[in-house]
Amino acid sequence: MTRIAFLDRDGVLIEEPADFQIDSYAKFRLVEGVIPALLRIRDAGYQFVMVSNQDGLGTASFPRDAFEGPQALLLQILASQGIVLREVLIDPHFEHDNAPTRKPGIGMLLHYLRDRDIDLAASVVIGDRETDMQLASNLGCRGLRFGPGHHDWAQIAHLLADAPRTARVQRTTRETDIRVSVDLDRVGDPQAHTGIGFFDHMLEQIGKHGGFALELRCAGDLHIDEHHTVEDCALALGEALRRALGDKRGIARYGQADADGERVELRLPMDEALASVALDLSGRAYFVFDGVFPRQQVGGLATELVPHFFRSLCDAAGLNLHLSVRGDNAHHMVEACFKAVARALRVAIARSGSELPSTKGQL
Predict the structure, then answer these.
(1) Host domain of residue 150
(2) 48: helix, coil or strand?
(3) Which of 24, 237, 319, 352 is 20 to 30 Å from 310 by CA-CA measure?
(4) E-state strands within 208-309
């Protein structure tokens, strides 16, 4: 889904004069740091829409011809630097007109609310006034206020381009109540509490060897059996990973890749057991498992639920996973599976740069 940065104009992109009208070239001056900041935000995957109130535009006090010249210069400068606006929306009304198109009204932006390809929750309004923050609230997106006492352009670019990849998910059904949080950019001691000690240990392997902070708590219907707890924990964790990864710009994508970018297996031994994993954060769920466990349970966890856990994780995360395991000790085999998948995830989620690793333009 597309993320939009809705940009105010005067006082944000170009400096605002004392009379609040940029109606001549002599008044035109770019805000310091705006070009490099917009380039970083663009490279982080945002598209730009200008949304500006221009009080009385087209009246005798503010002729449209006086506005068009500086406006065209602004757009030309931005385009020359590779910053292209998806749309320019200008409202000419005075405040006393109470026009629904005037910010913080959303009249000019209704088509973005209707467009299912637009991720408004992940979009942002950048402006210098409280009306811009109200617009953000009305749209259901984030608001970042520019100016003294708030943010400068370097800070805004950092918040949007280097934002920590975190997510919190609550999944509540008649069978389980689960809360899970992940921070893919922070290493932390993993915490898992599901009522199944061995399963907790396996979930902690994902956080520990995946190299990210993980907390998961589940109250499930263990008086029936462990199936619902294991399945729903996988679904909640998968959803948290999917949300935290966002648009996946800059990630390695594959669990392990050679110099040519082709998938290769990550192989992890644990005594006599050996687990092999090939993983792709493709957005398309697919799971292939090859292995036979020598006994039906390990530490209160049915071994038949191990592949079911990973299948459910793939479904929720949009993960393509091939997992195989062999060995003689069921405990070693199960643990090797979780550790190997975690190590593959560690490689796949690693972020460097801002390129999207897909020729499709999305993952």
Answers:
(1) 3-161
(2) strand
(3) 352
(4) 213-220, 266-270, 273-280, 286-290, 297-298, 301-302
Q: Total domain count for the chain? A: 2
Q: Which one of 102, 135, 161 terminates a domain?
A: 161
10 noted as active-site residue: yes
Q: For the domain that residue 282 is a member of, what is the CATH number?
A: 3.30.230.40
20 belongs to a structural domain? yes
Tokens standing for residue 338: 């979780």
Residues 106, 196 share a domain: no
Comparing C-alpha atoms, which of 355, 316, 2 is closest to residue 178? 316
Give yes or no for residue 253 having a pLDDT over 90: no
Same domain, 149 and 202: no
Using alpha carbons only, give the angle 30, 125, 349 rounded to the nearest 5 degrees: 105
Is there a catalytic annotation at residue 8?
yes
Q: Is residue 285 part of a domain?
A: yes
261 falls in which pLDDT band (50, 70, 90)? very low
Residue 354 within a domain:
no
Coil, helix or strand for 17? coil
Q: What are phi and psi of 166, to 5 degrees?
A: -125, 160
Mean pLDDT of 245-258: 78
Q: Which amino acid is at 307?
A: P
Catalytic-role residue among 10, 23, 132, 280 = 10
How is residue 50 written in tokens?
């200008």
Alpha-carbon distances of 56 from 70, 101, 333, rounded to whole Å: 17, 14, 72
**Is 136 within a domain?**
yes
Report pLDDT digits (tens) over 141-152.
999 999 999 999
Q: How far is residue 74's CA from residue 10's CA, in Å, rounded to a whole number?
A: 11
Residues in the chain: 363
Contact yes or no for 345/279 (Cβ under 8 A): yes
Same domain, 183 and 325: yes
| Whether residues 260 and 176 fall in one domain | yes
Three-state DSSP state, 111: helix
Side-chain-side CA neighbours of residue 347 (13 Å)? 19
